[in-house]
Amino acid sequence: MDKELLKRIYSNIIDNTAQSITTGYSELDSILSACSSGLLITIGGVNSSGKSSLLRNILINQILNNNKCMYFNLENTRENFAKFLICTYIDIPLCKVFMNSTLTKEEKLKLDTTIHEMQDWDLEIYDCSLYKLEKIIHEIISIKPNYVFIDGIDEIRTNEKFDIKEILKTLKNIIDKIKTTIFITTKINLETVNNEFNIPTNKNFNDPENILKYSDEVLILYRPDIYYMQDDMPEGFKSKTINIIATKNSKAIITLDFDNRNGKIKEIINK
To answer: Which uninterrupted H or E stretch holds 28?
Structure first.
């Protein structure tokens, strides 16, 4: 058997400080139940599949669980990310915030309360201006958070180029040093997907061999409503849902409710 796997299991069992990763979604947590904190989890999907939304929702759940977090939003500005985060947290439609639409009295009250509450969050936010791997690593080592979220590793540059193997290896080294858990997102090109329902698989990643080698778990997001009009949607799928396909260890699929008006992702009750 794999000696490193057995050593890790042994360590997790006898180490009372080891904690299971929790995302706030019971089915997803059950998939990750074999994982302890201090791992690299890769989330892949095509454009608009919900990668950023899932990261924001997991981030909020970690913040509310009193964890120290860092979020690298490498495809947007800090201001825009903060707007997305607020909308997701208090269920305000994104269009109202980004298009300066008039808020209701209740929404204004929610916003005022949330702005004050978020000032006490143990969260550091970085944006697309910080795209060099060495700077990202420096910030992580300096703060030593419980959770790190890197949204858009495709934008990271090491020695002025994109090298996914070097990025993943470096992140794993950092995890070994400070025992943080890192969630990353990466794009999948829909043009490489070749099956009836356009469902991405591991082979559709950019450099799938190294993603599988260095990631402790790989999750692929799939939203049928991206590819199909409502009348053409395959039987068994609902609009406004997001499917999470675990592809490395558990080989499981879970379905969550997705509200693209505010990026809120919830568990489906009484499925």
So the answer is: helix 26-31
Tell me the pLDDT of the chain averaged across its residues: 86
Handedness of CA 60, 63, 64, 67 (dihedral sign): positive
- Evaluated on CA atoms 170, 171, 173, 177, the torsion sign reads positive
3-state SS string over 64-124?
HCCCCEEEEECCCCHHHHHHHHHHHHHCCCHHHHHCCCCCCHHHHHHHHHHHHHHCCCCEE
Chain segment 100-118, per-residue pLDDT in tens? 778 889 999 999 999 999 9
Q: What is the pLDDT of residue 230?
A: 45
Let me know if domain 21-267 sits in CATH 3.40.50.300: yes
The rounded distance, in Å, linking the Cα atoms of 86 and 196 is 37
pTM to 2 decimal places: 0.87
* CA–CA distance, 72 with 154 (Å, rounded to integer): 12
Q: 263 and 236 in contact (C-beta within 8 Å)?
A: no
Q: DSSP label at 35? A: P
